[in-house]
Amino acid sequence: MDASNPIIFYDIASGPPVIPYAPNPWKTRYALNFKGVHYQTVWVELPDVASVRNKLGAAPVRAHKDGSSFYTLPIIKDPSTGDIIGDSFEIALYLDRTYTNAPLLFPPSTIGLQAAFNVQVDAIFTRFVILCAHGLPFNSETAEQSKAAFLWRAGKTDWEDMTVRGDERVKTLEAFKEALGELAKFYRCEDGPFLEGKTRRTRI
């Protein structure tokens, strides 16, 4: 890819100083770095994510409990092809299809397994977001709007309710550990410790 025509990567902005912190955009950032693709980051404030997706024509890929659209990042826009993709897993597949001179992110024979693993990761970390929500690095200028969105999704009214302490935190951590144990079953291979046994794919 021509460095003068980079992929546009939309990531969630933190409070100043702006740094990457959101898990799903981090997946895409790692994938772009791994593939060695030139890209430019556009930082988006959390309250602006829905309008940015709509402006780009990137349909929502998730839904709230009530069935309404849940607008999230990452998104990439590839000027060299005109493609716009708004899901971290689909972005990884796109990069493998389009930028074939770089190492594969997913061996073709494992895509079904990778998709199932991705679904489980998203479900578990969404379920236990309360363990880290209180420490998210919101921008002070938009923090109240961002917190209100988190509270609505969690069915709570007070930001202090997004923190678990004492015995409740111990119980929540135990439940999280148990859920991770279920996720770890993907790695239970007789001939090695990795998702593909002895085959290690990560070279970032």
TrEMBL record:
Pfam families: GST_N_2. This is GST N-terminal domain-containing protein. InterPro entries: Glutathione_S-Trfase_N, Thioredoxin-like_sf. Signal peptide: none annotated. It comes from Hermanssonia centrifuga. Residues 12-103 form the GST N-terminal domain. CDD domains: GST_N_etherase_LigE.
